[in-house]
Amino acid sequence: MTRVETGCKSLIGFLDDIFSLSNKNGWKLQEGHNYINITIELNKSNFSHYDVVSFIKGVVSNSQYIHSRMSINLRYESVKKEIVRVGQQTDKSKEWDELVDLLADNGNSDLVDGLLTYENEIRSKKTIAEPTNGLISLLIQDELQIQIKLQISKQKVGEKLIQNTEKNSTEHRDYKPQFWKSLDNLEEVIKEDGLEDYLAEFSSKKQPVLYLWELPSDLDSSNLYPIFSASDRGELNHEGLDRYKYKMEMIVALSAFDENSGSVHPSIFASISDQSAFVIPFVHTLFSLLSERVESVEVRDVNTYKYIITGSSGKITEEIYLNQYISSNDSICKLKELYDEVSVHEDQEIFIKIWRRSIIYHCEDFSKLDSKVDRIIDRYHIFEEELVESKLNDLSNAIRDVHTFMTETVNQVTTTSANLSNELQRLTLTVAIGLLVNIFFDFEPRVNDYFDNNLICSCYYNYFSLPTNC
């Protein structure tokens, strides 16, 4: 990958300032799905004069990424005053006069001068376009308690980052950018706030692209879910987009969810399920694919779902607390092994039904599924063989019925038309058998593995006495 180009450097520099200062005392950063909330308690012991000026300049020059506004609050004893609203007009108020009077009464002439200077700057400029001398003189005073608050729009940050990818900008409408400081933050938000908001960003209309400020070196993304460093250029391609849309359309057709209820294909998370941030999404989407119905459970703990499978041999209905899988590496490995088997024919509903039947055969609830993966896989292959044999028998019976019908018909043909009848017989039988074989070939890809030229020739030979040199 290559470094970002000039158009994105201002944003990258701004984010670098924010995240590099976040380890200082007095700095609180809270990340959610849509916003990054920042609260800074300034004092001379934890922030230098340079830090303050650089930070405010960065906010002002990147105000398009700030949701609502940035505010700077001054507090002196009992008086608290908001003195800055970036991008909005700031007017003098009663609290301002109270703060000036209080400082003057206590003999703080330097602070009074700073406030009056800043007041004149406000009156002349009406809005704050840059850190002014009066503002800076206030922010470095020991006597004042200073608090800065701002909220960064992650959507706006993501939209800027995706414009820097190696793709025609007019095609970016096919993608939904996501931005997170780290996978640890993403994992924490999913654990604490629930899975719904995160999965709601996945749809068959737009492919999510994840940008991380801190990109793990061992993270391998896929075309289904591209993941890039925010400071590098990514590369998107139509192949990945087309595969993603196909998978999402498929899961909507096969799963218990509709598209507006967070139905997401497990293949999107399967290759990155070794990262703990994606464990909950992977387990939930896999269980959803294997279930006939999924219900969100209104309980005290988030990420609790009820997964339901019914069959002739029983029924599974269980509430699962998904957060329990985050620290269970062995369980995730077994579930990944199960999905690798399921994925072979995951686009065919009849095989998904066989998987459900196999789970019911060995499990009384989903919580035991990971411990019985090997037996479930073995049982699936037994049921699959039975299905294939049944379809082969159906095909053989159908061919026999056609042969019987045609034989009876030919016997009724007069001797004078025998030659013509022989030719018509061969032609008619060939067409009939071709139609039958095509019907069964279309049944499932797996069944096709049991058909070859020798089988078809054998059918012709046994029932129609045709040559076997097919």
Describe the structure in brief.
The protein is of the alpha+beta class and 470 residues long. It contains 17 helices and 11 strands.
Written overview of the protein:
By secondary structure, the protein is an alpha+beta fold. It folds into three domains: 6-153, no CATH class; 165-347, no CATH class; 387-464, no CATH class. The protein has helices spanning 6-21, 49-61, 94-105, 109-125, 133-139, 154-162, 183-193, 196-199, 238-254, 267-270, 279-290, 329-342, 349-362, 373-411, 418-441, 445-448, 453-464, and strands at residues 27-31, 35-42, 71-76, 79-85, 145-153, 175-180, 207-212, 227-229, 293-296, 304-311, 314-321. The strands form three sheets. The protein has a five-stranded antiparallel beta sheet with strand order 1-2-5-3-4. A three-stranded parallel beta sheet has the order 6-7-8.
Topology of helices and strands:
Layout: H1 6-21, E1 27-31, E2 35-42, H2 49-61, E3 71-76, E4 79-85, H3 94-105, H4 109-125, H5 133-139, E5 145-153, H6 154-162, E6 175-180, H7 183-193, H8 196-199, E7 207-212, E8 227-229, H9 238-254, H10 267-270, H11 279-290, E9 293-296, E10 304-311, E11 314-321, H12 329-342, H13 349-362, H14 373-411, H15 418-441, H16 445-448, H17 453-464
Parallel strand pairs: 6-7, 7-8
Antiparallel strand pairs: 1-2, 2-5, 3-4, 3-5, 9-10, 10-11
